[in-house]
Write the structure tokens for this entry.
Amino acid sequence: MQYIDEIRPGVAVIVLDEKNRVLLQKRSDVGLWGIPSGHVEPGETVTEAAIREVQEETNLYIGIKKLIGVYSEPNSQVFEYPNGRTVHFITTCFLAEILGGKLRCNSSESLDVRFFPITELPPDLLTMHPKWLEDALANKELSFIR
């Protein structure tokens, strides 16, 4: 197994609009599209982190609808940043609804934010994110543990 610098709690949020399009963020750190995601900060819950990350990155206010799953598989959750740092994320993924706000690129962490039809996702998508979306669209009552 490769050297891992740290393990971090992460959150990801699947946000669908009224046309059933998925919200994606083009990340400035790697230049790839992905589901809005980020780190849990000290002293906050995973749901607080999810709500904060989406608001910081997209200017949208959301409400959590359900837990999609918890993802820790090293094959998909170990991420090497361009600066060489390698992090193993334990990601809690949620499905959320939009409560307010106007979509805009609201952070230096984002190059762009927009909604995509689920059948027309950009090819330069982070590798683990299609699985999170697939699990969200599976519409299962129970959460996934992967």
Summary: The chain has three helices and nine strands. The two ends are 18 Å apart (CA to CA). The longest strand covers residues 86-101.
